[in-house]
């Protein structure tokens, strides 16, 4: 026969177990995705209701039903795919060229401490200049076509990749470098065996930042001079005070950035599987 005093602790343990089970379910991929979808749906429902009952002005903030109508019509006539295709192509080229060029320059500075110290003030000065301010000059130099948008995206992404790669190369394991040097390894072999592997996680982490910067460069270039692209769509719609079309363009940009972010994550898992194992064994405190 169970003692009356033992029933309370057993009941408390049962409740705690159920709470842990619900917590584990919510902390799964499916649970997080469900919560995220509910948050987005709730946000748009609240927005729609606020406009319908007069709490918000549709002319000033737009309306989800109107944004959906713009998206459906632009998908039906194919204009959305054309504009998104232009912006994605420009951003990808700017991201690829900027990240590769910046990373190579940053890594090459490891070879000469003298050159690195000589160029550091110039790198800091270039980094302090808002790259958007260079947009009119870049348009003047490269014209109003694809090249100017790519060049603007490169100007935003290259400096970030350069600084990250150089800093990661400076922070590479000094003891391991000294060990290889004492064993007869030359500078090229140390660079290949120590510097490149140790800087790879930092360079790949920069991909996430540079994806956003590449999109910014492409869109700003389209703001200034373009006949196509999401930036052109947003700029034209804002000139006409068409907030629904502006929001439609912005939401498509968010979707593009979201897809790019996950592509970078897949690339990181492929190139750095050991890093994913470390994250999977992280201790929750």
Walkthrough of the structure:
This protein has about 280 residues and is mainly α. Helices cover about 85% and strands about 0% of the residues. The protein is built from 13 helices and no strands. Helix 5 runs parallel beside helix 8, helix 5 packs across helix 11 and helix 12 crosses helix 13. The protein is globular, with a radius of gyration of 26 Å. The model has no long low-confidence stretch (mean pLDDT about 85).
Give a brief rundown of this model.
The protein is mainly α and 285 residues long.
The radius of gyration computed from the alpha-carbon positions, rounded to a whole number of angstroms, is: 26 Å
Low-confidence stretches: none
Approximately how much beta-strand content do the residues carry?
under 5%
- Number of distinct helices: 13
Structural class: mainly alpha
What shape does the CA trace take?
globular
Question: How many strands, which pairing sense, and closed or not: the largest β-sheet?
Answer: none
Helicity, as a percent range: over 70%
Let me know the average pLDDT.
83
Number of strands: 0
Distance, first to last CA: 39 Å
Topology as H/E string?
HHHHHHHHHHHHH
Give the tags:
single chain; 285 residues; mainly alpha; 13 helices; globular
């Amino acid at each position: 026969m169970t003692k009356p005093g033992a029933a309370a602790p057993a009941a408390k343990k049962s409740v705690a177990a159920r709470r842990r089970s619900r917590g584990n379910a919510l902390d799964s991929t499916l649970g997080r995705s469900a919560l995220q979808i509910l948050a987005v749906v709730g946000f748009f429902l609240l927005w729609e209701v606020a406009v319908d009952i007069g709490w918000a002005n549709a002319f000033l903030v737009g309306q989800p039903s109107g944004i959906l109508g713009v998206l459906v019509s632009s998908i039906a006539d194919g204009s959305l795919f054309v504009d998104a295709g232009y912006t994605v192509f420009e951003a990808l080229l700017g991201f690829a060229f900027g990240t590769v060029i910046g990373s190579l320059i940053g890594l090459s500075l490891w070879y000469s401490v003298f050159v690195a110290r000589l160029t550091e003030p110039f790198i800091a000065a270039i980094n302090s200049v808002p790259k958007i301010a260079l947009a009119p000059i870049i348009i003047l130099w490269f014209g109003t076509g694809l090249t100017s948008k790519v060049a603007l995206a490169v100007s935003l992404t290259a400096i970030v990749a350069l600084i990250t790669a150089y800093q990661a190369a400076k922070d590479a394991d000094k003891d391991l470098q000294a060990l290889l040097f004492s064993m007869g390894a030359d500078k090229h072999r140390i660079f290949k065996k120590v510097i490149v592997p140790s800087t790879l996680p930092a360079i790949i982490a920069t991909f996430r930042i540079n994806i956003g910067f590449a999109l910014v460069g492409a869109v700003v270039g389209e703001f200034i001079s373009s006949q196509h692209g999401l930036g052109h769509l947003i700029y034209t719609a804002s000139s006409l005070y068409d907030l629904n079309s502006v929001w439609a363009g912005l939401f498509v940009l968010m979707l593009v950035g979201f897809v790019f972010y996950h592509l970078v994550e897949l690339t990181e898992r492929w190139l750095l599987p050991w890093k994913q194992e470390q994250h999977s064994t992280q201790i929750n405190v």
